[in-house]
Amino acid sequence: MSTFVDIHVIQSVPPSCVNRDDSGSPKSALYGGVRRLRVSSQSWKRATRLYFNDRLDASDVGVRTKRVVETLATRIAEQAPDLSGSAAGLAEEVFKAAKIKLSAPRSRKDAPLESGYLLFLSTSQVSRLAGLAIASSREGKALDAKAVKKVFKETNSVDIALFGRMVADDTDLNVDAACQVAHAISTHAADNEYDFFTAVDDEKNRSEEEDAGAGMMGTIEFSSATMYRYATVNMDMLVENLGSGEAALHALEVFVQGFCLSMPTGKQNTFANYTLPEAIVISVRDDQPISLVGAFEKPVHANEDTGYLTASLEALSAHARTIEDNYGLRPRAGLVVSLQNSDAVAALGERVSFADLSGRVRDAVAPLVISEEQGS
């Protein structure tokens, strides 16, 4: 029996452009035959990782970069200042031992070698790899490849355990993601709009000989919508990636907070789109993850008094009940944080405050995680 934690969020996003495509337009998708505003899963996962960086100890987060040699060399020099002159070479030997290919960066002349793709390393792993490199140099021995690979497989950070790691050169060093995040889509049809703007040249504006015309002008494409967001956490995988049930429960608490409160930062200075979820629904399951996006395959319509939010919550609640009635798949526990009070909200689970949410999720999941850990 596996344990899954499904997180459903209904959130209103005002005029903004939090996630752009290659032409600068807000991302969109066709669903149910109509165009929706879309925010990619990659964008919201990065926002969640940045939330981790601000709130977790440095030892619990990782760094995802091609500049792995530079990162490791810096740590070697910090731990052994007398080896700072050879730190880059020692770092290169570490990645060669792990069979990770390195190459010269294209845009930075004379810079340290880089990996061919973004590589996710935890702070603890970087420190331990630096220790191996220093010991190898002190002893005058070649690096032990098995010891290097062992470090890659241990002491994963919270973000690596949740979002995984891909190592194209050696799949044995991969970490399977314990968390999956869906692309967020609007619960209704949503079109992009254009903001024509001008910016006044202050000095020109002060001159009596000049007109008060704009110093520059342009357009910004934006959209607004009520969105459905969904993520699911495989607790068994999270325990495996972090090595203990207690560490996994801590990571789950942080993820619930980070996923719910984070916001991608695209054009944030322009739109200040700092909103919080209208409703958060968490389902603890022992059957399978279930997205409720089907509630919005038929787009909801705005009510002039309640907008899209009430209609979205009602559709979400009705779809959840329909699934339970027809498939018999019911969550072991359901918790709801909502700014609204309605029969639809009451039907989605027990009302709790956001301050209590993470702890209540932990209480619901802990018996399942700990019992499986003890039985393994």
UniProtKB/TrEMBL annotation:
InterPro entries: CRISPR-assoc_prot_CT1975 (IPR010148). Pfam families: Cas_CT1975. It comes from the Bacteria. NCBIfam families: casC_Cse4. This is Type I-E CRISPR-associated protein Cas7/Cse4/CasC. It comes from Actinomyces respiraculi. The gene is cas7e.
